[in-house]
Amino acid sequence: AYAGDDGGNLWRFDLLGATSASWGVSYNQPLFTAPANQPIYVAPAWVPHPGDGKALPDGCVNNRTAQDLANNDYAQQCGAMVIFGTGALLDADDKLNTNMQTIYGIWDKTPIGLPITPAFVAVSKTTNLLKQTIDTVATTGSGLSADKTFFKVSSNAIDWNTQRGWYLDLSKLPNSTGERVIGDVFNLGSNVFVSSV
To answer: What pLDDT shows up at residue 160?
Structure first.
């Protein structure tokens, strides 16, 4: 399970044990901490790692072997992408906060459903995540969407050998100061939907 806190920490919880006494925080520290204490008040969503076109190693989802672990063979394909946004709007003071908020996709390398985890390596926004951007040139819709305005988001290709995910800073469009994510992220098939206000 994944959850955030108002200090910008993304936590992973190991719930594989037969009793709650064996449950606990994975890695004994946050999976990721957003810079400038961007609060995470929404429930994150996750999807299996999308892969990079290479064949899945044996035991990626199950039947993990000691040799796979020794060779670090799961590094390219296993694990989950955890998607979440930052920001809060709980009281009047929050409305005055116009700090930059961000949508993140963080790669948790632990194979889904397995208790064995790779060695923890801290994830940094500035050094380990690929920046995506919003094109500030608007496109007017057509047909049924003729009364709507659309903005494109970049699709910069990620290098899974060196990067642990991506981020998209908000408040980059005209009149969007104070943009934040305050609604839960949700899955629909292999897609993840994030809405901001």
So the answer is: 85
Across the strands, what pairs with 13? Answer: 25
Element (DSSP H or E) covering residue 95: helix 92-96
pTM of the prediction?
A: 0.85
* 104 DSSP 8-state letter: E
> Residues 152, 135: contact at Cβ < 8 Å?
yes
Rounded CA separation 55/50 (Å): 12
Q: Are 46 and 81 in contact (CB under 8 A)?
A: yes
Helix (H) or strand (E) holding 126: helix 125-128
**Rg of the chain over CA atoms, in angstroms?**
18
Residue 196 CB contacts under 8 Å (≥ 6 apart), including other chains: 85, 87, 101, 103, 170, 179, 180, 181
Q: Which residues of 5-17 are buried (b: 16+ CB within 10 A; e: fewer)?
A: eeebbbbbeeeee
- CA-CA distance, 177 to 26, in Å (whole number)? 35
- pLDDT tens string 27-78: 889 999 999 879 999 999 999 888 766 655 544 544 445 555 555 554 456 7
Question: 95 and 178 in contact (C-beta within 8 Å)?
Answer: yes
Q: Which of 37 and 142 is assigned the larger pLDDT?
A: 142
Type of residue numbered 150: F
- The counts of H helices and E strands in the chain are 3, 13
